[in-house]
Amino acid sequence: MISKLDLNIDPKALGKVAVLMGGDSAEREVSLTMSGPGVLAALLHGGVDAHPFNPAERGLHELKAEGFERCFIALHGRHGEDGTVQGALELLGIPYTGSGVLASAIAIDKIMTKRLWLADGLATPRYVKLKKSDIGRERCMAIPDELGLPIIVKPPHEGSSMGMSKVMGYSEMLDAVQLAAQFDDEILCEEFIAGPELTCSVLGEGDSAFALPVVRIEAEGGNYDYQNKYFTDTTRYLTGALSDEQEAQVQALALAAYKSLGCRGWGRADVMLRKSDNKPFLLEMNTSPGMTSHSLVPISAKAAGISYEQLCLWLLSQARLDGKA
Fold it and tell me: Do the Cβ atoms of 129 and 186 come closer than 8 Å?
């Protein structure tokens, strides 16, 4: 797998680099205290002239004024992986890591993502979209009749399981919808797929893109929430946990999902494997995945023989602007 990447990278040729971290989204603390510092340390150790930069504290125009030549986006959530920062960097003419403006804007919207995947014939759970103005007891109580129980309720523009609930009964629906509405003007109610939770990372672009080994997630109590993602050591991340046939099937689906959205650089597809028939279903695509000690892309890359430092250097080497190689 490592042979698919050109890891012969001259760090000096990458120029002065800003690691964008923090920001103002609901996931800013993870970016500021975990992902950002991890990436920065790896780049510095690899010989890159890298510096931290928090867009919540400094105007992005300062990047140009201070001579930064490329950016590693280690921001999560809104104003980080939703196309807004990417658009600003496009205007500044500073190449950046990860997907471009359009793919980033689509992928941050789980409902729009599902629409594209369904149009391309890719499996994703059935869903109902609500607007904040639609929230009412009668409407909420009707959703379990449409989707069955359990139901996953979440804000469609947030990550890291922010505002997400698993609804087991009718009496829990209204509270779950109201919680999600605290984070978003829209609410995604999604059919629950019972089975193992998986994730599959993808590197590259277009025909050269390829999937890394699939990771199976086993969280305590089966609840892979914000706490279990970042602040516990009990969650297990297993590679090589699927049969060869299942592994290939999930990788093919993740790669198709990545290409469907027009992603580049890197991304991570979250997938549920339905227990009843081993059919994989796409949940979402992360275009600026976490880079913490618990994060899934580094775990998957390690299983492919790619170290954390090599991964960071390679991603940085792929930084570019829309429409430019």
Answer: yes
- C-alpha 201: how far from its chain's center? 9
Of 57, 114, 108, nearest to 81 by C-alpha is 108
Sheet containing strand 151-154, edge to edge, reads 127-131, 186-191, 151-154, 165-167
In a domain, 187, yes or no: yes
Q: Tell me which residues are annotated as active site.
A: 27, 160, 230, 268, 270, 284, 286, 290
The H-or-E segment that residue 76 falls in is: none
Segment 8-19, tens digit of pLDDT: 999 999 999 999
> Which residues contact residue 59 at a Cβ distance below 8 angstroms, ignoring those fewer than 6 apart?
none
Report the share of the chain in percent with pLDDT over 90. Answer: 82
Last residue of a domain, one of 169, 191, 213: 191
Domain coverage including residue 37: 2-97
Contacts of 312 (CB under 8 A, 6+ apart): 39, 42, 43, 46, 72, 291
pLDDT value of position 230: 45
Give the mean pLDDT of the chain.
92
Total domains, the chain = 3
